[in-house]
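Problem 12. The chain below contains 467 residues. Write out its predicted structure in token notation.
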Amino acid sequence: MKDMKTKQGTKERPIFIVDDEDEILVAVDTTLRMAGLDNIVTISDSRDVIRQMERQIPRLILLDLNMPHINGGRLLKIIRKTWPRIPVIVLTGAIDVDTAVNCMKIGALDYVVKPVEEARLLAAVNQALDYEHLAESDNKKFPRDLFSQIKNPEAFRHIITQDKKMHSIFHYVEAIAPSSQPVLIFGETGVGKELICQSIHSLSQRKGKLVKVNVAGLDDNVFSDTLFGHVAGAFTGADRARPGLIEQAAAGSLFLDEIGDLALGSQVKLLRLLQEGEYLPLGSDRTRKSDVRILASTNLDLWALEKKGQFRKDLIYRLSTHTLTLPPLKERLLDLPLLLDRFACQAAIELDKPIPDIPKNLIEQMETYPFKGNIRELKSMVHDAISRYKKGPITASLFTGLTPAGSFKVHGDGAPTDLPTLKEASVELVEKALVQTRGNQSAAAKILGISQQALSKRIQKIKTGEQ
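Solution.
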């Protein structure tokens, strides 16, 4: 018991006990607390486990097998995919021992038969805590997950990934988080720029809160009022003073989303804030100081906008003291099964549907999908599919845009598919043949399997736009 208390410590992650029987929860909780393990979370509804793990990663899970909604075996599979290093001990009835043994084959560390014997339970828990300790100290003997070298994995718990590029970004975020300088985050729509922003703020340990605002479409007056606030009488209807977001984020972080769409007039005011640490509320003639840290994101090329006169060069330099670029989902295909499984689980819980098995062929089909909206688009697609799901493995037919063959349908708005038209394919073939033969039409015609005269006619039509 003394060893257990020492291992627990005051800053250790909690132990989760998951069981739909209150008497079992009480019995196991009491036994562990008497052994000195006081950081315990009891969960009676299996649907709450994933939600709780997304908020707080446990060091150990005691998991009942037979529960309504999501059974323990299914939960174990989900946990193993996303959190492979968290030890899990299965709680099972005597008649389910074979099932418990099968659970060990897919990743459970041990099993304890109910009604629980105190000595057996403590032995299993002690072994699991030893496993956790050794896994952290011996990387040769125990497999290590993606976050093994991350100093503060809790700060990234809301980001589902096993991608090496993302891993490198996490290291960079840990390095720059203590800085007070601005951070500029690049990335396509839906890649998770706001999530990375949350991680930066969390790791910064700034005393103030994180305040977010989308600046796209804000005219200069609205931008100034939103960020800087106003004094009483600043304009018609301003009966009282209103603090802006900068004041609300004092000693914290201010996240400016879609910074590339910021109006030029507003850019000047933001530049002053970054250069001088000062701002002027609307209607006031007295500047105020601010210690807020600016975090900004965009899916646009700011240097291209600067060339067009739409974005200030000096503001780009000020914003980009620290910069990072998040990869699109198409460059993170290793994460696709994890994301698909997690979103399916979340949607099924929210819609009170059974959690479906996800066949390998569905993942293979989705790997060819363009995902212009990235992870946000995937999440919406999965939620929509689960809303129509009934039973059995989930199929491509439930996903808008996917055909059973895995190709893409033309959307109702007439958006093009990824396949070229016959006309486009014909032009591309001719151009490639000419490049390959360095402009030799006779040789190009042989490659294409047509006469040189026919090729000449096609080239002429391409030049005149008739093709």
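Discussion. Confidence is low (pLDDT under 50) at residues 5-11, 137-147, 404-417. Students who got a different answer should revisit the alignment rule from Section 12.3.
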